[in-house]
From TrEMBL:
It comes from Veillonella tobetsuensis. This is Uncharacterized protein. One of its GO terms (biological process) is monoatomic ion transport. Belongs to the BexD/CtrA/VexA family. Residues 125-203 form the SLBB domain.
Amino acid sequence: MNRKLIALSLVIGTMATTGFAKDISTEAVTATSMETSASTIGSDQIYRLRQGDELTIDVVQQMDLGANKTFTIRPDGYVSFPMVGNIKADGMTVEEFTQSLINSLSTYIINPEVSVNVAKLGGVRVYVFGEINKPGAYTLTKSSTVIDAIGAAGSFNWDTAKKKIFLIHQNDPTKPIEINLNNILKTGDMSQNYVMREGDILYLTKNSKISFSRDIVPILTGAYMVSRIGKD
């Protein structure tokens, strides 16, 4: 083997053990970190009521209204409560819903004192497909953001195009929302970490990233063999 071929071999070895290897290890660390911190990211946000949540509601002036009962938020986002009928709950914080209930009860009770608690969290059924480690359907509780869904599905894989994944709302499938996951991971900007709704689909597309060991080494090896044959 001549000196040029030896030098080429050393360069390839250096690339594999420095820059490229560093990129691969960073990718792995990022994926693992995202998977383990998914619920933490979601829990930092103010919790908003959603369908399936079970509530306990007490009215001090008339304890019999909610005594020993739980009130479930229906798929249409409403709760049925004595005296006031249907009242919107989905998307509200507990404080906002409590105040709304107070306002409605004020028609019948003077200065009603109302206490609302979440007895049981409802789950949101979502679907994660494409370049994900465990594609399928998942029921998310407590927090149902894009990051939560990706974490539940085992995180993204090597071929995931992290700059272009799509959120498809069940009620508006013709207008997919493009998300730059890479920006979320690198900057911590959660503005695109959207809350997923019942029946939503998250689709991770495939990228054109080049792998040194998978794509470059075979080419260099082929060039090496051609060069050697020519020299022999």
